[in-house]
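Risk register update: the risk of archive-format incompatibility is retired. Evidence:
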Amino acid sequence: MVTMRDVAKAAGVSQAAVSYAYSGSPRVSAQVRDRIFTIAHDLGYTGPNIAGSSLRSGRIGTVGVLVPGSLALAVEDPSTMLLLKGIVEVGELADVALTLLPVVVSGPSDGTHPIKPAALRGLVDGVVLHCLPNDHPAVTAVVARRTPAVAIDSPRLPHMPYVTIDHRSGGIEQMNHVLSLGHRRIGVITDRIGAVSAPGLHHRFDASATTEAYLHDRLTGYVEACRRANVAADDLMVIEAAGIDMSSGVEAAGQLLDMGPTAIVATSDVHAAAAIKEATRRGLQVPGDVSVIGFDDAPLAELIGLTTIHQPLADKGRTAAAMLLDVIAGKPRRRSVKKTELKVRDTTGRPPD
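Archived output:
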């Protein structure tokens, strides 16, 4: 078996130089690195033992991303995929394995469904937490183990860095758009509002009862925009969808369209697209009969001409990954709040006469 020592001897360099070449260290020049790799290839040497390197450095070489819900929904959600795209675009993670760890979101654990993601068994160097409640058992375990962590949108905990957008301002801008067009019969399709999923119509809607930090801020923005326009929050027709997927969105949109709104404000582009699909199935014109606006500006938004609120999803992923690398390296923690922007396309207009 060819060893690192054999490569060093054949290349006329020290064993440390070979190690530096494989780790990408600037301590060896590009010319020396190329010569080492060429000789290693000729000798049949495939590189240093990763397990041994991990033991010496105390690092595993794996970063986990904890996402709410099932793995199937995570990979279907365009917003989540853009976040992951941003994470893997960070150059320092090129040789690091990325592990997607879905966790059930059902409020505090009752003990019947123990949380067992790999992050809680010490199998990752750090984790990115995406849209998890502050009191979720997985979050509690990450904090208790002092696993290096960065949050995207939520949780919001002391001493944990996070990257997010101003969801409240984004919600105000989203609702203001349909209000400025003259809409007053407004329906909302939202993600899970409370700790436990409760799909269907929410009578006497109260934004303060929302448990997710990002959704709380976004819905609070809706209420504030309505208050400024002298529209009572109780006049909003708020439907909670069973999940952030097309079928759940279509079902929620059906319930909402039965109530006759002239505009639908969705907390995600997926739900907005579902509303357009259901409205079209019923023979309604968008925006002639009902206007629809989404949130995220995922790739499908431009594809279908959806008016939406743009948030820099891939950039959020890149920033979170860079922050996590800093945390793992013991550097000072920081936080980042990105800007949103209204994208007016083809799905919103004035209400019908």
